[in-house]
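To start, an entry.
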Amino acid sequence: MKRILQKLWSIAIAVLPVFFLIGCDNPTPEVVPQKYVVLIKDMRFQPDSITVHVGDTIEWVNKDMVDHDITEETNKEWSSGKLPPGKSWDYVVTKSASYYCSIHVVMKGKIEVP
């Protein structure tokens, strides 16, 4: 009986590394950053709330008739500067944030990162 257990143990020791190697051959798929568009139209951000992942890009496109901007609301960490009609601005997401148009402060939006 002792000899059988020793044999089984030696087989297990020999086979175990193979399972680890098989796992290494199948890495998790790489997440490809996505691009999302938010329209600025009719004095609103459309959509006004968007859920994205860190590394994704949001492009705001000014389809309105006046200048707007996109400014992080809490600490003013980032801002597009004035965005004339027909122009766009891209931002690579690093975390959740609330934002607004500092020219028209009633315009607000939110970026959610799960």
Q: What stands out?
A: DSSP finds one helix and eight strands in the chain. The longest helix spans residues 2-25.
